[in-house]
Batch of 2 targets.
Target 1
Amino acid sequence: MIEGLVGQIEARFGELSRAMSDPEVIGDRHRYAEVGREYRRLEPAAKLAEEWRRATDDAAGAEELLAEDGDDAEVREMLGTARERLRELEEEIRFAMVERDPNDDKDVIIEIQGGAGGDEAGLWAGDIFRMLSRYAERRGFKVEPLDVGDGKYTFEVKGDGAYSVFKYEGGTHRVQRVPATESQGRIHTSTATVAVLPEAEDVDVEVDPNDLQVDVYRSSGPGGQSVNTTDSAVRITHKPSGIVVAMQDEKSQLQNREKAMRVLRARLYERAVAEQQAAAAADRRAQVGTGDRAEKIRTYNYGERRVTDHRIKLTAHNLDEVLEGDLDQFTGALDDEDKRRRLESQDLG
C-alpha cells in the first residue's frame, strides 16, 4: 500500500516539476501560480518519499549481505535501523498526504466582537484584534480593516494559505484579568467571540440582487454624532437568510457597499459549507477549529501569564508574546491534531 502511495507522489511531483519549467505554463500567470502552490504543498511528501526509497534500498542491501555472508552484528543493526525508519516514514508520508481543507488557500474575513463582560469585553475584543493583526503581519499576510470600532472588528487577512492559519482562531476567547476600571483589584472574566470566514469568490456563492435590500444612511461616530454629511454608510440585508451586514468605515458609499458584499458572501459561503457538512453527517464538533462562535477555545490568564487552548489541552506561560502575535505554537499543535483526525476519518472511510 505504501509503495503505491510513494509511486503516486513521485509521479505527480515529477509532473509538477516539469510544468514549473514549461514555457506554456510560465506564460499563464494564473496557471503558473496554481502549479506553484501544488508543488510547494507536495514537496514535503516528495522528500519523505525519496527518503523512503533510500531506506528501502538500505534494508534490501542489509538483507542481501546477511544472506551472503551470514550473521553480522553491524549489518543486523543497520537492517534494524532501516526497518524502524521505514515504519516511521510510512506514518509520516500518510500524515503528509492527509486530504486538505479545500478552503485552506483562501483569504479570510475575521469578525470579532465583545461577548460577556460589558465594557471590558469590548476592550478585550480590541486586544484580540491587535493580536491577530500582528500574527498576520508576522506570517507575511496583508491586513485590511473593513469595519472597526465600538467593540466590533471586521477585517480581512490576505495571502496564500491565510485560512489554513486562522481557521483555528474561530470561537470564544476568554480573558481573566483585573480591568483598568476596577478599583478593588478584583479579577474579572470577559469574553470575545471570533468568527473566521473563508472569503468567497463570485463563483463560490451566487447572490441574486433581487434578494438584497440595500439601505444607505449617514455614518455615525461615538455617541451617535454624524461623521459624514452624505449618506455613505450601507446596510445590506439578504432577505432569504436574514443576514444583515452594515459598513460605514469608508467615505464612499460605493466602497462601503463593496466591503459589505464581501462580508455577506463570506457569511453565506460559511453557511453553505456548514449545511453540506451537516448533510454528510460530519461531526463538526469533533473537529479541531470548527470556528463555532459558542465554543470556548482559549483562556488568557493575566495573573499567571498563562494561555491555555482547551481543544488540545495545551498551556503556555508566555502571555505577553502571544498577545504580540506569537501564535505559531498553538497553530502548529492544532494543525497536527486536525491532520490526525482527518487521517483517522479517511482510514474509517
Target 2
Amino acid sequence: MRSGLRQRGEPGHDNQTEIISTSGSIPSEWPKPRAMSSTRPHLPKTSKPDTQKPATTAGPKIPEPPAQAQAQGRGVEQWVVNADYAGQRIDNFLLSRLQGVPKTRIYKMLRTGEVRVNGGRVSSDYRIEADDRLRIPPVRVMPAGEPDARHQAWGQASPAMAKSMSEKIQVLFEDELVLAINKPFGFAVHGGSGVRLGVIEALRQSRFGVNTIAAREGTNRIESGFLELVHRLDRETSGVMLIAKRRSALTEFHRQLRDGEMRKRYLALVWGGWPIGLDRIEAPLHKWVNAKGERWVRVQDGGQMAITKIQVLQRITHPVMGEVSFLRCEPLTGRTHQLRVHLAHAGCPIIGDPKYGRYAHDAMFGQQHSDPDCRWVTRMFLHAWQLRCRHPKGLERLDFRADLDSIFLQGLHQLRMDAPE
C-alpha cells in the first residue's frame, strides 16, 4: 500500500427575501395525486384575493425553556418560496429551515407525501421554484436551552444567543452578494447533532430577526433574508469563511470550488519535526462511522483521493515540549477533515486536535499543567488564514485574510515562533 506521501522531486509532484411561512386559512385536506414526481406540480388557478387588508398578528413569542427539555409542536404551516431559493433541492431546503427536526423525520414527510408542493407530492430531489407553495405538516422540535460556554445550545436558539454569537464574528468583507467572515474556533458553522445554533443561524437571526412580518396585499408573510454557506470549516477550526447573499452568488462560488479556482491556505501547529523535503501529500481518504455514531476519516485504499501542499514556516525543538513545526497548508481537494488526517498520517498531528491528535501530549500542556505559563493548549491549532476567489458578479479577484486569535498567538509565543506576515 502506498503511503501517499510524496517527497520533493518525486514524479507527479437587495434585499430579496424568502417567505418561510404565512398565516391564514389552510385547507383541511390536499389533493392526493397518484404518483410522486420530481417535476413541478401544477398550481391550480385561484380567484383574485380579497383586497381588504388582513388583520395583523403579533409576532410569535419565544417560549421559556422548561425545566426538562421536551419536544414542542408546530402546527400546519404554508410557505411560499422566494426567487433566491429557486433551484435548491427541497430536502436541503427543509433541512436548513426546520432546525431541531430530525433528518429522518424530514425525509419521511417527503416520502409519505405529508409535505406538499402546490397541492401535490414531490420526491426529495425535486428542485423548488419561485412562488412554489409548500404545505408543511405539524412537526415537533426541541425547545430553547441555556447557552453553553461557546454560546451554542441544544434546541431552537433565542435572539439573545444569536446576538451574542454574531457579535463575536468579525466581518472581513461585505457587499450585496458576498459576506466574508473570520469564524472563531469553537463555533459550529451550522446547527446539527447536539447543536442548534451555528454561525449561519446566528447571522440570519441577528440580521433578519426570528420572524419578520411583512403585510402585503391579501397576505401576512413571515420572511427572512438569504444567507447560505459557500463552504464549511470544522467547529474547532478558525478563520476565513465565505457566505453567499444571493442564490446566483452561491452557484458561482460552487462552480469555482468544483473547477479548482478557489484557493485556501491554512496555518497549523503540529507536534513533531516535519520531514525534510515532504512538501506534498497524496493519500486517499475514507469516511466511516464508529459505534457511537461519530464520523471519522482515515487514509485507506479505495477512498477519495486527497492532495495537500505543505510548506514549513518554522521547526523547533523545545526543551520541554519537544519537536514542534509550524506549517502552511494548501488543500488542493476539499475532503472532510483532509488536513487533520493528512498531517496525522505523516506523523505530525495538529496540536489540540480532539480526534486525530496526541491526546496525552495535548493534556500535558492544557489546563491541568502545574505551570500556568504552560497551559496554552486550549484549542486546535488550525486556522484558515487566506482565501482567494473571484467576485461572483464582476469576476475580479478577491483576497481575504483572517488574523490569528490571541490563543493561537499565545501558543506561538510559548514556542518562541513568529507569526507570519
